[in-house]
Design a protein that fits this description.
- The chain is mainly β and 301 residues long.
- It folds into three domains: 121 residues, Jelly Rolls; 38 residues, no CATH class; 95 residues, Jelly Rolls (Sandwich), CATH 2.60.120.10.
- It is built from two helices and 23 strands.
- The strands form five sheets. Strands 1, 15, 16, 17, 18, 19, 20, 21, 22 and 23 form a ten-stranded antiparallel sheet that branches. Strands 2-3-10-5-8-14 form a six-stranded antiparallel sheet, with no helix packed on it.
- The C terminus is likely disordered.
């Protein structure tokens, strides 16, 4: 179990190709595993623009303040949660400085895993020795003068992970925007003084997103199960073991770990459950594809 307070984390400004995002890293999983993940608070420090693109990992974003443009008229507003499925394209994005969001990125049901920030930096530095980055594009010239271009994240993935980047066929035709304030609180028998909003369950992995409210002096048990559990405090104060948690603190529990979250004042938390991937999953009926050089989105049917 790990607990992180963003007030104690430095702001990292060079981990995104646009150079205008500031990251405060909170939690990290285990590199080179299919279930690797990362939790951060991201802030637009400048004018953020990004072409339409897609990933080979899953992502959740919760807007802490401001709003975020997701392209094609889609806007993620303050207090809303969005699920970005692996393989599903979104964008183009165009936002001014200001928005702040909780971001969790993690290996999806495809089993391709997730590249950690440390792996990203190492791969980027290695590529700089053989080419150059122009915004979100990596440019390389071979000995014959032939120039090749790739989205920088694709090139960095291949360098860091030692294999070509494949994009799984999209399971969903669009991102999924959830409006937690429109959900009703449901009493939960899981603990004392606990209420729950189940926001959704996604993919064959059965990932869940929910919000818990624990009344003052209430207890939310975290049971032993074969899943990673991540909690992010939206409001209130409490304790996990002997550690204090407050607004915007994050905590994770690994498979096999258990404990309880005690509320000192009324505690509201965003919660994610990431089951471990089955080793017996069969191949999907639609195959993954390799992005073409310089192409951010490839059509699939």
């Amino acid at each position: 179990m790990n607990i992180a307070n963003p007030d104690n984390q430095p702001v990292v400004t060079d981990d995104h190709p646009t150079g205008v995002l500031g990251f405060r890293y909170l939690l990290n999983g285990t590199p080179l595993t299919p279930e690797n993940y990362m939790v951060q608070i991201a802030e637009n420090l400048g004018h953020f623009k990004m072409v339409t693109h897609r990933h080979n990992f899953d992502q959740f974003r919760y807007v802490i303040s401001g709003q975020m443009n997701l392209g094609e008229g889609r806007v993620l507003k303050e207090g809303e949660l969005c699920y970005f499925p692996e393989g599903t394209s979104y964008g183009p994005q165009d936002d001014p400085a200001g928005p702040v969001a909780l971001v969790m990125q993690f290996g999806g049901a495809s089993g391709y895993g997730y590249m950690s920030p440390q792996q990203y930096r190492q791969g980027r530095e290695e590529l700089r020795r053989i080419g150059r980055f122009e915004g979100p594009v990596f440019v390389k010239q071979d000995a014959n003068g032939k120039v090749s271009k790739k989205l920088s994240i694709n090139a960095i993935w291949e360098q860091a992970m030692g294999e070509r980047l494949l994009i799984p066929a999209p399971r969903y035709s669009d991102v999924v925007i959830m409006k937690p304030k429109a959900f009703r609180w449901m009493p939960s028998a899981i603990g004392r003084g606990v209420f729950r909003k189940l926001l959704g369950s996604f993919s064959e992995r059965g990932i869940t997103a929910e919000v818990f409210k624990v009344k003052a002096r209430g207890l939310l048990p975290v049971i032993n199960e074969d899943a990673i559990r991540v909690y992010f405090v939206l409001s209130g104060e409490g304790r996990i073991g002997g550690c204090r948690i407050e607004r915007h603190c994050a905590a994770d529990f690994q498979p096999g770990e258990q404990g309880q979250i005690a509320a000192d004042s009324e505690l509201e938390m965003l919660a994610f459950r990431l089951p471990m991937l089955s080793r017996d999953l069969q191949d999907p009926q639609l195959s993954s594809t390799e992005p073409l050089p310089g192409e951010s989105v490839a059509e699939q049917s």
